Amino acid sequence: MNYIQSNQNKTIKEIKALHLKKNRDAEGLYFVEGIRFVNDAIDNEQDIIKVIISDKLESLNGGKELINRVNSVCNECFLVNEKLFKEISDTQTPQGILAVLKKKENNLDEIIKQGNSIVILDRLQDPGNVGTIIRTSDAAGISAVILTKGCVDLFSPKVLRSTMGSVFHLPIFENMKIDGSIELLKQSNYKIIASHLKGKNNYYNEDLTGKIAIIVGNEANGISDETAQLSDSLVKIPMPGRAESLNASIAASIMIYEIVRQKLK
C-alpha cells in the first residue's frame, strides 16, 4: 500500500476533481465513502478503481477487516493521514475510507422489455428525495429508475448517501429525455401514470397489475405540461386532511407500494 503525504499528489488531485459533476461525467467515475458503503461496493462486485484509506481506519470497528478486503479486490490502495483524508472527504466526520468506482452501464431497452414497473423522476432537485425514492424502488422490486434531464446528479455524494447502497442494486438511468423515455415504454405496452395536483383520477382506483411506469414531478412545479400530455392517466393521491401537497419522496413511496400491494394481491 502506497503512502501519500502531499495534497499536491496526482491521485489526491484526481479525487478532489470528482467532487464536481463535470469531472465525474468526463471520467465516468464517482466515489463513495464509509465502511458500510465500501463494503456494499465490494459485495455487489462494483468496479473499484482505487481506494484511499486514512491511518485512523484500522482503529475503527470493522476497519482491519475492510482494509484486508479492499487489498484483495483493488490494486491501487493508498494510505494517507487523517488531515489529508479530510481534504478529499465530503462528510463532516469521515470514517477514513473512500473508493473510486467506475459508472456501470445498463441497457434501457432490455430492462423495459424484461421488467414490469418503472419509476420516472421528472426534474427532481432535492438529493434526499432522489436517494430515498431510489432506495424505496429497490425495496419494492421496481425494474429501473429513470432520471430525466434537469434532475440532480445521481452520483453526487448526497444522493449516493441517501440511497443507502441501493444505487448498486437496480438499474438507474440519468439525464434521459422524458419524451423519448415515455415513447420507449409505450412501445412495450407500459401504462404511463403521472402524479399531478390537478389529476382527476384517484390513484388507488388505477389498475397497476400490468406494465406500469409512474412519474413523479419536480418538488416545486410538479410534472411539465409536455409530460402531462404524454401520460395515459393523471392521478392524485387522496388527501382528506388539510395539507395541500405531499413531499415528493413520500408521494413516490405511496405510489410505489400501491403497485406492490396490487401485484401481491
| Count of DSSP H/I helices | 11
- From the alpha carbons, calculate the radius of gyration and give it in angstroms: 21 Å
Query: What is the CATH domain class of the largest domain?
Result: Alpha Beta
Low-confidence stretches: none
The CATH superfamily name of the largest domain is SPOUT methyltransferase, trefoil knot domain
CATH fold category name of the largest domain? Alpha/beta knot
Strand order of the largest sheet: 8-7-6-11-9-12-10
Q: What is the count of structural domains?
A: 2
Shape annotation? elongated
Protein name: RNA methyltransferase
Domain RNA 2-O ribose methyltransferase substrate binding: 31-107
GO molecular function: RNA binding; RNA methyltransferase activity
Family: Belongs to the class IV-like SAM-binding methyltransferase superfamily. RNA methyltransferase TrmH family.
In short:
The protein folds into two domains: 2-102, Ribosomal protein L30/S12 (60s Ribosomal Protein L30, Chain: A), CATH 3.30.1330; 108-264, Alpha/beta knot (3-Layer(aba) Sandwich), CATH 3.40.1280.10.
Would you mind describing this structure in some detail?
Residues 31-107 form the RNA 2-O ribose methyltransferase substrate binding domain. Belongs to the class IV-like SAM-binding methyltransferase superfamily. RNA methyltransferase TrmH family. Keywords: Methyltransferase, Transferase. InterPro entries: Alpha/beta_knot_MTases, MRM3-like_sub_bind, Ribosomal_eL30-like_sf, rRNA_Methyltransferase, SpoU_MeTrfase, SpoU_subst-bd, tRNA_m1G_MTases_N. This protein has 265 residues and is of the alpha/beta class. It has two domains: 2-102, Ribosomal protein L30/S12 (60s Ribosomal Protein L30, Chain: A); 108-264, SPOUT methyltransferase, trefoil knot domain (Alpha/beta knot, 3-Layer(aba) Sandwich), CATH 3.40.1280. The chain contains eleven helices and twelve strands. The protein has helices at 10-17, 21-27, 35-43, 63-73, 82-88, 108-114, 127-140, 157-163, 178-187, 225-230, 248-264; strands at residues 2-3, 29-33, 48-54, 77-80, 97-102, 117-122, 144-148, 172-176, 191-195, 201-202, 212-217, 233-236. The strands form two sheets. A seven-stranded parallel beta sheet has the order 8-7-6-11-9-12-10, sandwiched between helices. Helix 7 links the parallel strand 6 and strand 7. Helix 3 (35-43) runs parallel beside helix 4, helix 7 (127-140) runs parallel beside helix 8 (157-163) and helix 7 (127-140) packs parallel to helix 11 (248-264). The longest helix is centred in the last third of the chain and has 17 residues, at 248-264. The termini are far apart. The mean pLDDT is 96.
